[in-house]
Amino acid sequence: MKGCRRTEHGCRAAFLALLLTLCAMLLPSPALAEIKTVESEGAYTMEGGLEESPAIAKARARENALRNASNQAGVFVESIFMTRNSRLTRDEVHVISSTVLDVRDETFSTEAAGSQAIRYHCRLTATVDTTAVTEQLQRSKEDLDAAVQRNKLLEEENAKIAAEIENLKQQFAQAANDAERATIRAKARLNEASFSGNELVRQGNILRDRGASRQAIECYQQALALSSQSAIAYFSMGFAYQDLKDYENAMRCYQQALALGLDYAGVHAQLGGLYWRQTDYTRAVAEYDRAIAEIHDNASLYAMRGYCHELLHNYGEAIADYEDALRLNPGQKLARDGMERIQWLME
């Protein structure tokens, strides 16, 4: 009898060992992960007479280096998706490469660039881990689309800020008197605050895309402390509050972004979703109307507007929206299920 127990125990141990071996074989091996190293440079010229901040000048050089590094990382990220027969837009590749880029080292140097100008150089080394790229594959299409929207808005705003500071440098060189120069310097200070705020928004977006929404909110709040009129900071913070299911603060952020002039389809789409959560389907439809007026090829927007119409018993409008959603994406589940429900009601 004891021998039988020993044999039974041995069989169980052998079975567990085999099971663990199989699990180890099925799980992705860390050894298979590939790490790509990226090196890049960026520069920025600070005009001494404009009294620019050396710290901000360094940050501008670093931003340019990061942009170059992200472009290089994008080539690597795109190659990973191509080997998996996945297709990404250029904007999606850019968002993912920015998110997974991990800066390991950075150095700064300066050189004279005229009688009062100093040119700052930033050289940085960063890595991209295929494991981090794979994690980005788990993001929903809606979440990735939203990240692309935020990134585009931020890049557009950064381009305006960069163009403005260069224009201010030209104005300063042509200023006729001290009063004009003082006015231009004051505008340069505001430009630097906007730049610093946007840098914090960028950091917040990366944290949020990595799943650290609470830390992202801290970055957005710091950005607003520097530039209280930053609609992009409010817009981005709304997403982070939604991650935490704090829908009241998310609503407040989106409404503030609108009040500051960000009359943008992405804002209306998020407000539509929040009104839907509040069962205010009429206001949700109105927000989706505004979003769809700007974006005509988003199946999810049509499906959500159709769902709200269905809940309001506007079945004709619901069917039209569901049909548009399925035309854009035949696999759109919300639209497909909605069509089946309405057809069942009408039988």
Protein model, in words:
This protein is mostly helical. The chain has 3 domains: 33-138, Dodecin subunit-like (2-Layer Sandwich), CATH 3.30.1660; 142-261, Serine Threonine Protein Phosphatase 5, Tetratricopeptide repeat, CATH 1.25.40.10; 263-347, Alpha Horseshoe (Serine Threonine Protein Phosphatase 5, Tetratricopeptide repeat). The protein is 71% helix and 11% strand. It contains 14 helices and 3 strands. The protein has helices at 2-26, 54-83, 90-100, 130-136, 141-174, 178-209, 213-226, 231-243, 247-259, 265-277, 281-294, 299-311, 315-328, 333-346; strands at 35-47, 102-112, 117-129. Strands 1-3-2 form a 3-stranded antiparallel β-sheet. A hairpin with a 4-residue loop joins strand 2 (102-112) and strand 3 (117-129). Helix 2 crosses helix 3. The longest helix has 34 residues, at 141-174. The protein is globular and about 85 Å long.
| Low-confidence regions | 1-11, 18-31
CATH architecture of the largest domain: Alpha Horseshoe
Give the distance, in angstroms, between the N- and C-terminal Cα atoms.
69 Å
What is the count of helical runs?
14
Number of beta strands: 3
Mean pLDDT: 86
| Tally of domains | 3
Give me the side-by-side strand order of the main sheet: 1-3-2
The major β-sheet equals:
3 strands, antiparallel
Q: Which geometry do the CA atoms define?
A: globular
Q: Provide the helix percentage.
A: over 70%
